[in-house]
Amino acid sequence: MLTQAQERILPEIIEKGLIFASEEMGIALRNSSFSPNIKERMDHSCAIFDALGDLLAQAEHIPVHLGSLPLGLRNVLEFLSKHGCEMEKGSMVIANDPYITGTHLNDIALIRPVYFGRSIVAYVANKAHHSDIGGIIPGSMSSSATQLEDEGIVIRPKVLVREDLMEDKVSKEIASRTRMPKVCLGDLNAQVAANMTGERRVLELVSKYGRELFESSTLDFLEKNEFLIRDYISSNLSGRAKAVDYLESRSGKLLKLKVRVVVDRRKGEIFFDYSGTCSQVREPLNAVLGVTLSGVYYVMKCITDPMISVNEGFFRAIKVRVPRGSILNPIQGHPVSGGNVETSQRNADLLFRALSRIRGAPIIAASQGTMNNVMFGCDSWAFYETIGGGMGARPGKDGIDGIQCHMTNTLNTPVEHLESAFPILVTQYSFREDSSGAGEFRGGCGIIRSWKIEKDEPSLCFTIISERQIVSPWGVRGGKPGECGKVWLKRAVRMQDESREEGTKMLIRLSSKETIRIQKGDEIILETPGGGGYGRPSNRSIQSVKKDLEDEIISLDYANRYYPTQLKMLKKNSHNF
Q1: Domain end call among 225, 244, 277
Q2: How many separate domains does the chain show?
Q3: Which of 20, 35, 400, 471 is least surrounded by CB atoms within 10 angstroms?
Q4: Is the pTM value of this prediction over 0.90?
């Protein structure tokens, strides 16, 4: 029997227990996975829900996954109900249809009901990005897709695990339609292990405190978080604002994203309206509703009290309207692979821009605004990774250099693992000099990463899906924009006549969204965008300019262009300049 004092703190104990359980799910998934994208880059997310499908806890994983999971779980439960299916004890359901689960086809979701006795007490769920899920190009995220099926196999919710045993027919059918069946099966088993771990931890809590106290405690901490977020909005934020930003289509046409933000201090609510955003397109830049919501939730988490947990209580104060048929809420069938990664990033920048005009909200310049999705592969293998860039500057702080910003929270692929697993040599991996937006506080600098093909393979190709090659990451309060990104192909020229020098190379500029055939000796060079600056460059401290020069973040030419006064003082006071 618990004392009254123990019962008062029990909601906090159970909330933290569930958060740590979701983190442990992620550890199990990472440690038992096969693909470098999950094992090394940790491109996966885990969460725990109550019996009604309300989010109770999530791990600190991928924002674009996490924000879409609550809608995805409800959609899966609704789908199963419509088709007369019940999630039985010991079962797991698999799905990846973006219009149900809420991201893109590469993200496979697994959901498991947690039974206590004869009824469900919770759900555990995870998403993991599979490096290949079929489709028209290796890596599945085609830059030229015009329909959803171009991007891979579409999995409507179905049972993958029954009575704690994998349904081999289902798993093998899915794996056989990918370019790496063994890796796909290995990663699916890792996802199963993650949910088993989550179930075990939830049942430990329920068994220890009893179902009644467990459920009443979850209701208590959801109400607490709702109160905290509403109180924060009422006490700190006020006003209304609009913002516009643009995506870059394959043709170079700019696609408008627009948002209006209104704070209702009386109710402690904040309203986001995307009316005026461009219509859905027949290219893979559409972001399903789950992706758009994930951007809103992520940005709100960034600007509010970090001690407020993200769960169903947090969501109750946030109202969102997204016109159906827009690029941020497309109709079933439109391609969406790039929307999950690129449009989600642009949405984050758009929201930060709007909220910077709301009284009481913090200000940040635009970050690199892209995940720089890189895919190599052929009929028998596929490699996928995203590359970091510059984070936007903030009041009092420079942006972070070479980081995975905003909607992604992944790591890089270690060079050693990449080169041992694939016929690829990493020829450069460094910060990109002169890419940061100048300012009193500069933006973070981008990255240069290049890959050389070591072996000829039939149908070998390279795909890039990125952004910010046309529209620069903007600065604020007089800060300069960060440099746009660039992608190059250094082509190995095959010797056809003796007059050509051995080792001749052609340098070709690629667009931000392109798939090309490649061969042995070809080299891809990616220069990622820098973050925007904050404040006038003339106000930057002399010591900061000196350190940037010493660290080779900027060159003398760059310093002369943006920090001429500081550079003059440095030259006057030092023989090194």
Answers
A1: 225
A2: 2
A3: 20
A4: yes
